[in-house]
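Problem 12. The chain below contains 350 residues. Write out its predicted structure in C-alpha cell notation.
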Amino acid sequence: MRQSVRPVLVAFLSAGLFAAAAPMSKLLLGELSPFQLAGLLYLGAGVGVLPAVVSDRRRSSSWPDDRKNVVRLAGAIVCGGVVGPVLLLLALRTASAASVSLWLNFELIATAVLGHFAFHDDLGRSGWLAVLGSVIAGCLLGFGERAAGLAPGMLVCAACLCWGVDNHLTALIDGIRPSQSVLWKGSVAGCVNVLIGITMQPYAASVGATGLALVVGALCYGASITLYIAAAQGIGATRAHVVFAGAPFLGAAMAVGLLGEPVAQYQIIAAGLLLASTALLFHDHHEHAHRHEVVAHTHAHEHGDGHHDHTHEAGARASYHSHRHEHEAESHSHGHWPDVHHRHMHRETG
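Solution.
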C-alpha cells in the first residue's frame, strides 16, 4: 500500500496554527468571560472558513445527507464546540498557559482510548508506543512548570475527553467537506456560547479585544480544525492526534524565535521523542481481507489508491480533489490505516 505523507504534513500544519491558541486566549480572558471568549473564538472559526465553504458549495452539499452524519456533526458541535472550549477557558482563568498546555496532552490519551473501545480506530504495538512517546514528550516539555492544581487540571482533562469524542466524530463525517463541518461547529457553538456569556455577565470587552478574538478563532481554531479533520479522515483521529501533539513544541519554537527565550536541554530531548513517535506511525498498520459495502460519500482523495477508480470529465480531474462519488461493493486485502474507508473490527498485526 502506498501510504501518503500528505495527511501527516497537514496534521503538522494544523498543530502549528493551534500552538498560539492557549497564550492568546490567556491574554484575552482579561476582558472576556470564558463563555464570551469561547463563543467569539468559534464565531471567528466559522468566519475564517466561510470563503472555502462558499467555493465548495458548487461541488458538494453543505449539510450531511443522512441521519448518521447529522448525529455525528451534532455531537461534534456539542462536545467540541460548546462544552470543551468553556472547560478549557475556565481552567485558564486560574492556571498558567504553560501548565494548561501540559494537561492538554491528556487529549491524546482520551482520543486513543476512545478510538480503541468505541470508534474502531485501533492501534498496534507501534501505535501505542507512539502515544506513550508523545505523552512523555509533553511531560518533558512542561518540566519545571508549576502544577496547574487539581481543580483546573480536572477541568482540562474533562475538556480533553470532550475533544476526544469530537475528534472521532468529525473524522467519520463523510457527507460534507472539513471546512463545512467547521462552519457548522463555529456558527452554532459560537452563537450558543456568546448568548450564554452575555446572559451571565454584561459584555464589556473593547473593540480591539473582540476583533483579536475573532482573528485568533479564524486562524487557531477555524483553519487548524479544518486541517485536522482532513488529516484525521486520511489516517484516523488517533494517528492524526499523535502528530498534533507537536503543538506545544511548535509553540516553544515560536517563543524562541519571537521572544528570544533560551532553548533548554529537556525541550530538545522532548522534540526528539515526538519525532520518533511520529515515525512509529508509519510502521503501525495492518493487512487483512475485508469487504467494502456500496457507499456514496464526499471526501478528499486521489486516484491510484485502490479505492477510487471512477472517471472524470475531461480536464476535471486533479491529483488531490474532493467531490461526491460512489463505491461498488468489493472484497480485497491490503495494508491500510483507519481512514474513512476502513473503520471495521480487525485483528491487529502491527
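Discussion. The chain has one domain: 6-285. Students who got a different answer should revisit the alignment rule from Section 12.3.
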